[in-house]
Structures are given as structure tokens and as C-alpha cells.
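All the exercises in this workshop are built on plain-text protein records. A record pairs a protein's sequence with a compact description of its fold. Read left to right, the C-alpha cells trace the chain's path through space. Once this layout is familiar, the rest of the handout is easier to follow. Here is such a record, shown just as it appears in the course material:
>
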Amino acid sequence: MKIAVLMGGTSEEREISIRTGAGVSKALLSLGHEVITLDTGTGALLRAGELEAALGNPAGPSALAPAALPKGATNVGLEPFVRGMPRDIELVFVALHGGDGENGTLQALLDLARVPYTGSGVLASALAMDKAISKRIFVHDGVPTPEWVERWAPEDPVQPWNPDLEPEEIEALGGFPLVVKPNDQGSTVGITIVQARAELKGAFHTARRYGRLVLVERFIPGREVTVSVLDDRPLPVVEIIPEGGFYDYEHKYTSGASRYECPANLPRETTERLQDLGVRACRALRTRGVARVDFRLDEEGAPFCLEVNTVPGMTETSLVPKAAAAAGMTYEDLVRAIVDSSPLEVVR
């Protein structure tokens, strides 16, 4: 099959996407597919043999912050890349994390162009990227999620904005610490754990840089776990143990900054509960293919769903490949399963 891997892009998760695309491309080649890679951030369309040049910095992202866009990056949007894709492409492997690659925009363009693609469709992608909407759906479908409040910033970014929380809101969220984060980012981009009221203003404005809607969420002390769901089937639970601090961008993508246990050392009842909730959250949002559901376990072992990722990372430190390995799958097995789960009946 001739497969185009879309990666890179212009979101804050650009370099992680490049690393995902590199791993996926290598696996697809080993599975016998013909592969081309498209960096939608620069417009570079490369044959598999030219992949190394597209990666730029194969050593990975800075441990301190998301990578900056490369020289020559474009902001023309995804439509020209979809429209200019070779006509003989049989499948697009979506490796674009965050932004228009994960929020349904790319999926809508591919649907309109009648090009099959991996992963979730337009609706699931849009719902999962919007944390406030997905949390409302979780509440409706009985998936526990931390309580939250929302604050909208003005449309004009230069207009003064002085958000705050009422004392009763802080009390309803369990008091400090609180989690302040953008509504539609991933990889903990723009997130702050606020320890006192004096830190709120700075946290609001940090999150505001990534979108108008900011969420303030109850902080759940305890353990960080995740459930990957592949074709409506939960994989083994992974526990993430950051080496100091919380599971932020640095701890996610710096080798050795976090430890992982898979399967997680949990009571069987807790494992089964997490897996059931992971599947339920994915069904509620109508995901397809592979998705990853992130949870916090409080000190009593009660789970709280944070979000669903419809284009989860596939790098060497990513959680989905770890869960798949614990289920007896190689990386190539996982990539094959993602390809096989894609609807291929669309014909241009």
C-alpha cells in the first residue's frame, strides 16, 4: 500500500510529531509499504529515502520547552497539502499532534478529498481536543473527571484581561493547589500547578497564550496512569512516575526523566475499573483506531479521567507502544493494527 505519513506541522507539539512520524515511517517500510513523508510545517514532501533530512533534529526536543518552528515554516494551513497530495496515495497515516492535525480540521479536509486516514474522524477529534466539552460528555456518561471552572479571555489579545476565582469556586475545587491549563492543548503545554492565589494571574496568562478558553481544575494528588485503547480493546495500564515534579513536557519527552511501570502495579479491581473507564470514555467521544486516556488515581485509588488523546505519541518514550509491548505486540504489530483499523473503502 502507498501511505503518506503527515507529521511536523505548526503546533507546539511539532518536534514530538516529527519523532512519531519517523518511527511510524520506519515501521511501515519494514511492513512492506511504500511510504512518503509530508512535513506540513514546511511543505516538504519527501520519499522515504529522504526522511532523515526532514527530521532536522533526530536527537529529539529540548528538555525545557517545545521546539520552535523551523526557518521556512508556513502558516498557510493544511488545505494546500491535502489538495496537492499525490493522487495514488491509498492511506494517510496521521502523525500530527495537537492543533489542526488533531482537532478535526485535517480529518475534515481528508474526508472532503475522499482520502482514507488513520485514527478518529472529525467529530471524535474535535470533541477530544476540546477539554471542556469532553469533560461534559464524561460527566453525562458516568466517567469521573475532576471538577473545573472556565474563563474566557477577550478575542483581542491586547485587550486587558484580569481573570480571578471567587472564594466559593476555589472551595468547590478543593482549594489549592489547582491546575490551570489551556482548553485545547496537549503534552501539558501551557499548564501550571498553582499553589496559592498569588500565582493565579500568571497561570491564567500562560494558558491564554494558547487559546481563549482557560480551564481551572481540581488537583488530584496521587498517581498518574494511562489506558491505551486499540479498536475498542484496552491495553495494559501504564503508570508514569516522574523523577521529581509532575509529568510535564520535560518529564514526558526527556529520556530518564520519568519511570514507567507496565502493567501498573495496581489491584486487579482498579486495573479493570481503569480499563473499563478508558473504553467508556473512547466510546463516548466516538474515537476510532488507537487512543490514549489519561487518568489520575487519588490517594484512595479512585480514578479521574483527565482527557482522551486521539493522536497519541508513538516515539521511543511514548506510552502507547509501552502498553502494546506489555500486551505482547511489537512496534510494527501496533502500526499494522492502526493501519488495519482504518476505513479503506473511500475511493476518490
